[in-house]
Amino acid sequence: MVIIVETDLLGLEISKGELRRLTGFDPDEVFRPSIMRDQSKRLGFISNELMVAFALTLLIVAFIYIFLILPTIGTSIPLALTLLITVPIFVLFGRWFWRRKTCPKAVTVLLDEVDRYHTVIHSIHINDQLATSGNKTSHIHDREKVISALQLIREDLVRALKTERILRDNKELLANNQELFINNLSNLQALQVSQEASEYAQLLNQSLQIAIDVQAEIRKLQSQR
User: Fold this and answer.
1) Residues 68, 73, 78, 82: what is their CA dihedral angle, to the nearest 10 degrees?
2) Which of 20, 96, 138, 173 could, after both became Cys, cross-link 200 (CB 3.0–4.6 A)?
3) CA 125, 28, 220 angle in degrees (round to 5)?
4) Contact in structure between 138 and 162 (CB atoms under 8 Å)
């Protein structure tokens, strides 16, 4: 079965590559409490962590055993087993601590907003599929306004991520980048839908809430100057 995606949705998604470029972090490597509340994401995150911990444990244990234990005390199975138990614990804790130390809270908050933004896009895609299969949908004008809102939110999300990165890397640059603090919230609030109870009205309300939350985060960043 071929899944048709409307062309106006194709440019809305913020890819992992773009997020990596904007933040300097791999989005899949950033620990966020929201991930642990989502079963599918939680399982994927934990599985990835366990695989990484297993691989690092083998390398660390092999290095310690071959280059430190064997030359000094010789073969020791109990000590090897102890290393296999304790090293992964230290690896997992070390990775968690390193993430908390190196990844700013603002990045985790904004990445959560990106996830919410992508959820709205996915909802529109599902509505489009229902419409093409013969189900009734909201007025096309409502859909177009939600798309317009998402385009504005995308700009704000990218702007917020750039702002955080500049603050983190070089605060002095802010004097020449005041446009990064401009947001599209007033334009978003000007958008209205024809049916307040429609599916697209609900999606627009979700989009407005994302915009408000992103603006709040931008203000927090601005207060750090």
Assistant:
1) -30
2) 138
3) 85
4) no
How far is it, in rounded angstroms, from Cα 14 to Cα 29?
A: 17
The one-letter code for the residue type at 9 is: L
What pLDDT, in 10s, does the model give residues 94-124?
998 888 888 888 899 999 999 999 999 999 8
User: Residue ranges per domain, the chain?
Assistant: 24-103, 104-223
User: Nearest 5°: phi and psi at 99?
Assistant: -65, -45
Residue type, 2: V
What the block records as the tokens of 145 is 């306004």
Amino acid identity for residue 212 in this structure: I
For the record, the structure tokens of 202 come out as 């609900």
Token pair recorded at residue 94: 């070390």
Closest CA to 207 of 99, 121, 85, 95: 121
The pLDDT of residue 179 is 56
Which residues in the chain land under pLDDT 50?
1-4, 175
**Residues contacting 24, CB < 8 A, separation 6+:** 165, 168
pTM of the predicted protein model: 0.76
| Cβ atoms of residues 161 and 104 within 8 Å | no
For every residue of 161-180, DSSP letters joined together read: HHHHHHHHH-GGGGGG-GGG
